[in-house]
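Dig into what follows:

_____
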Amino acid sequence: MSTDVNHLDEDARRLAELGYKQELERSWSGFTNFAISFSIISILAGAFTTYYQAWNNGGPFAITWGWIFVSIFILIIGFCMAEIVSAFPTAGGVYYWAARLGGPGWGWFTGWFNLVGLVGVVASVDYFCAQFLAITISLFDSDFKPFDLTNVFVIFLILLAIHVVINLFPSHILKFWNNISAFWHIIGASIVALILIFDPEKHQSFNFVFTERFNNSGFFDGSTGGIGYFFYIIPLGFLLTQYTITGFDSCGHLSEETKGAALGAAKGVWKSIFYSAIGGWILLILFTFAATETDVINGLKTDDPGFYGVGSVITIFATSLSLAGFKTIMIIAVIGQIFCAGSGMTSASRMLFAFARDGAVPGSGFLSKVAPNRAPRNATLGIAAACIVVTAPALIGNDADIPWIFYALAGITAIGLYIAYGMPIYLRWRMGDKFEPGPWTLGSKYKWMCPIAVVEIIIVSIYFSAPFSPAGIPGNEGFALDNGAVQYAPVVVFGVVGLAGIWWLVSARNWFKGPHKPLVTPSSSGPPS
């Protein structure tokens, strides 16, 4: 197959050099590419919905300092990914990178980890959003039952349907969604900050925010000192940061729709991490300054009308803010989460489209078709179907109406995505100076950045596969499959990837060849700048 080079612009030519013709509409600017990653990271989503994880596993000390500590490592991961996306700006993202750097087998498994993680992003954000929206509705209608699992699931389905419809539009429409989302996250977060500063009648001290420790996990008899606290409890709280600041591979998945992608997508990766880390830290500190009713927040007064869960930011809002301030923050957060999940659907559909384009998923012929408006409609529907499947168990609650299986989704997202990020980073490091960089490059810094990134990913994946409380360990007192303490994230992630591995061994390794061969001869000057 050949392509007439004379009729290709710079971006299309580079794409042809990577093996693909320009099928998706390329109408995004570098800012929009940044905006989708910034929206998926969404400090109005992850920082709100998983705050409890760090509060219960470390307390304010872990929240304040843990966020900074982990953000630095995530930024290093982002720098490593930025260099690779600059060399390979395709919708396949990390899957394509791994396949080109390590071969079809590396690409196959990287793609499946990435796909599982991206489905986790959309499903978890939409369900968390449904929970937030249900509580928000109850603030205006006291008869509405916000914790009824059927009510929450119906809201989830409505939100998912909205995001499907939005993503049936072509790129030049979607860019408005993501641009508006970026501004909403900036302006909305600023309003939330002002409310948290001026609305509460009192605030916690600096000493509390920066040094107070909690251990509500049940491990080590609640100790807030010693090896157990610092090397097991606090790392469990890192899920707050690791889950929130993720999804930035979207810059790569949308690179085929971005003008000047070799530079724009690379900058989008690290800038979205950097600005989200700063904005998220400010919000987390303000949440903690407002956390004055610690007995209620720690679940010692569960009969208090402001109790919405141990360590929950909603409990903080309900016990420290006026009703007007509470409602305003909830509305801002819900809208931000709606934007986040919509952008997540965009990224996930592009990844599935690209993976299917190379024949790596069942129904590849259907999922890789592009609609007449140049949108990957079938891939969008495929992601939505997968989200319904993985979220359906949320209808099953225990005696306390806790959707116990669903709580694995945050871990599924973090484990699946970060392992997918780590594989091409490792391969780029292994390749050394043989790697041909694009216009955005780390230079020799890859020699220390890449191994640090890989080690961080291995460590957090181990921690997020460990039980979050003693009741999650078989044989311990209180153990039950539906108590919400059992860690299902590794079971789901490695279960799905394990099935993909069986498919690989039995069949796919004989026919899956990875990315397409170049449609044009790569230019001698390397990727365009």
Q: What stands out?
A: The longest strand covers residues 57-58. The chain is about 65% helix and 0% strand.
